[in-house]
Write a structure and sequence with these properties.
- It contains seven helices and eleven strands.
- The protein is α/β, with parallel strands linked by helices and 265 residues long.
- It has a single domain, classed as Rossmann fold.
- The strands form two sheets. An eight-stranded mixed β-sheet has the order 1-2-11-10-7-3-4-6, with helices on both faces. Strands 5-9-8 form a three-stranded antiparallel β-sheet.
- The protein is globular and about 55 Å long.
- The protein starts with 13 loop residues before the first strand and ends in a 12-residue tail after the last strand.
- The N terminus is likely disordered.
- Bound molecules: 2-amino-2-deoxy-6-O-phosphono-alpha-D-glucopyranose (GLP).
C-alpha cells in the first residue's frame, strides 16, 4: 500500500464560488490526497484538532492515513479528534455505531490516545443531554483545525438534512430523512433497522472549523456536488454553505466532478 503523502497525487486546485476544487484521476488518488492533507496538518501542528466523518467515502482516507502512520509520516500521538455525528440509540460498543466504525477504520491502528477521540454518545438515554455534553467539549477544545466532510446524496453534511433549522445549541438531535436511512441501510444487517434519529454537530459548528475538506467520489455524487458548488447557497442543500467558508477545499474524483460546469479560460 502506498503511503499518503505522494507528490503524484497532488492536484492543482481551481476556485468555484470561493471553494478550492481539486479533481483527482481516481477515487483512490482522491482518498490519498485527503489523507496527505491530514498528514501535512499533523506535521505542521502535532496537537491538531481533527474533525472526522464517517460513511463509505472516508474509508479509503483512513486506510491511507493508517499507511502514512505506519510509514512514519503521520503522528497522531498529540492530536485530538471530534466526529460529526452518531446514531441515537446506538451505544459506542454497538457494531453499527460510528464509534465502532472509527475504531475499525482508524483509532485501533494509529497512536491516537483513546481519551482524545470524541463522538457524541448515542447510548445516553437522553440524547439532548449527550448533545450538550459533546458540544461543551467541542467548545472547550475546538474548533477543528481541519474538518473532513462527506456529502449525502441529498446534500447533507454531518446529519444536517436539507431544510435544517438553525441549532443554537451546536450539537443537536435530528430526525433522519427517509432517503438517508435508505442510503445507509447498506451498513446494517438484514432485519436491523437504521435508527430514526441521530446526534449531529450543527452546520454552524461545522463551519467554525479553521479549514474544511469535503471528499466526494463516484458518479452518484456528481449532481449534488454541482448543486453544492455552483447552485445558490441555502439550507435546501446544506453542503452549499461551504461557499461561505474562508478555507474550504472539495476533493473529487473525475466521476464526482462530472457535472461541474467546464472550466472557463
Ligand atoms: C452519512 C454521514 C455523513 C456522510 C454521508 C455520506 O449519513 N452522516 O457524514 O458524509 O452520509 O455517506 P457516504 O460517504 O457513505 O456516501
Amino acid at each position: 500500500m502506498r503511503a499518503a503523502a505522494n507528490a503524484a497525487d497532488v492536484a492543482e486546485g481551481r476556485f468555484v464560488q470561493g471553494v478550492c476544487v481539486k479533481v483527482l484521476p481516481s477515487a483512490a488518488a482522491a482518498e490519498r490526497h485527503v489523507a496527505a492533507l491530514f498528514a501535512e496538518q499533523l506535521r505542521r501542528k502535532p496537537d491538531s484538532v481533527l474533525g472526522l466523518a464517517t460513511g463509505g467515502t472516508p474509508v479509503g482516507v483512513y486506510r491511507a492515513l493508517v499507511a502514512a502512520h505506519r510509514a512514519g509520516e503521520a503522528d497522531l500521538g498529540r492530536a485530538r479528534t471530534f466526529n460529526l455525528d452518531e446514531y441515537a440509540g446506538l451505544a459506542p460498543d454497538h457494531p453499527q455505531s460510528y464509534a465502532a466504525y472509527m475504531r475499525q477504520h482508524l483509532f485501533d491502528h494509529v497512536n491516537l490516545p483513546p481519551e482524545r477521540t470524541h463522538l457524541p454518545d448515542g447510548g445516553v438515554a437522553d440524547a439532548a443531554v449527550a448533545c450538550r455534553l459533546y458540544d461543551a467539549l467541542y467548545r472547550h477544545y475546538g474548533p477543528a483545525d481541519l474538518q473532513l466532510l462527506g456529502i449525502g446524496l441529498n446534500g447533507h453534511i454531518g446529519f444536517n438534512e436539507p431544510g435544517f433549522a438553525p441549532a443554537p445549541g451546536g450539537t443537536h438531535v435530528v430526525r433522519l430523512d427517509e432517503s438517508t436511512r435508505q442510503a445507509n441501510a447498506r451498513f446494517f444487517g438484514a432485519g436491523e433497522t437504521v435508527p430514526e434519529y441521530a446526534l449531529t454537530m450543527s452546520a454552524g459548528r461545522i463551519m467554525q472549523a479553521r479549514s474544511i475538506v469535503l471528499l466526494a467520489t463516484g458518479a452518484a455524487k456528481a449532481a449534488i456536488v454541482a448543486r453544492a458548488l455552483e447552485g445558490p447557497i441555502g439550507t435546501d442543500c446544506p453542503a452549499s454553505l461551504l461557499q461561505l467558508h474562508p478555507d474550504a477545499t472539495v476533493v473529487l474524483d473525475r466521476e464526482a466532478a462530472g457535472e461541474l460546469a467546464p472550466e472557463r479560460g
